[in-house]
# Entry
Amino acid sequence: MNQFISNHEIYDKVICALVPQAKNRLWIATADIKDMYVASPGSGEMIPFLGLLDQLLAQGVDIRLIHAKEPGPNFRQDFDRYPRLWKQMERIICPRVHFKCIIADGRKAYFGSANLTGAGLGAKSDNRRNFENGVLTDDPSLVEPLCEQFDAVWRGACCAKCTRKAFCGDGPVNA
# Structure
């Protein structure tokens, strides 16, 4: 299945369906990351996206997050509300990352233009959302290279030639 999706479809099919479906691992890459609210699976209550990630960690899902820069104070405030994120979620900062993807269990993925922000992926009204698009797929010919790209950045395979290492962390760390 390869499906072109845009705007609210991204929220419905990625945030409300793909992310909660992760059973073993969830990999997220984004250039920009901001405080974002989403509907909690089951209750529909609006919670920080970080609360959804916290729920997944509690269910035993391993989460890796790559983002290009430190998020702002609102994100940090929500992050601090979920101690499990500090202890279990792995993250790296790579200022060269501009690709955006969410990969669930190495089998199904979204990749496209949307950053991990309310205007990109969150539950915003039509007049407050960015114009975004992407592909939702379970096709191994697309998912496997996407996993390899994510993993190459995660492993630091690109660091030797990057020239921006001074702006990164020390590699994968728990948040």
About this structure: The mean pLDDT is 91. The longest strand covers residues 25-30. Helices lie at 8-21, 49-58, 73-80, 83-88, 140-155, 159-162.
